[in-house]
Known about the structure:
Blueprint: H1 10-19, H2 24-37, H3 48-53, E1 55-56, H4 58-61, H5 65-68, H6 73-80, E2 88-89, H7 90-99, H8 106-117, H9 127-138, H10 144-158, H11 168-176, H12 181-184
Antiparallel strand pairs: 1-2
Helix pairs in contact: 2-7, 6-8, 8-11, 9-10
Amino acid sequence: MGNKVVTFTEDQFNAYQDCTYFTKKDILRIFQRFHKLNPNVIPVEMSEVIASTLKVSTCFLEEMPEFKANPFNKRIFRVFSSDGSSHLTFNEFLDMFSVFSDAAPRELKISYAFKIYDFDEDKELGRNDLHKTLRCLSRNELTEEEMSFVVNKVLEEGDLDDKGSLSYMEFEHIISRDPDFLSMFHIRI
């Protein structure tokens, strides 16, 4: 009788619920947002193969209200795309929303913040990474001298082993003292 379209199989829902912080209803809402990005290309029925291979271009992702004004949008997409292309499959899109959800643990959010701020992807936050991060956070409103001063202060306070960069553990220690971190590292679905 009813020609109800099935977006995901029960196995897919179970896998998504096991790997994210979402309910079935949340997953469907996120899929609707993904589908609306490029409805001419993204099918309504998402097989496991399509969900893990069909990618949405960065130009569509950047138009989402949550990312339009976000100075880290390109870095966020790059970090969540498994191939580094910044184009996302549905699975990657869902992972991104899961990490930015209220239910994601602080440690997971810190881990992804570190990856986002690690512009040169060397698993350390060096002066260049900190400069770029500060430039994004301040939206280029600080002078070079002011940025250098802040970067020096961050390294002075956080670089416990005096290597001239922040390790993940040092970054985690700094972020753990920021009461606003969780509210800034959040997206509503």
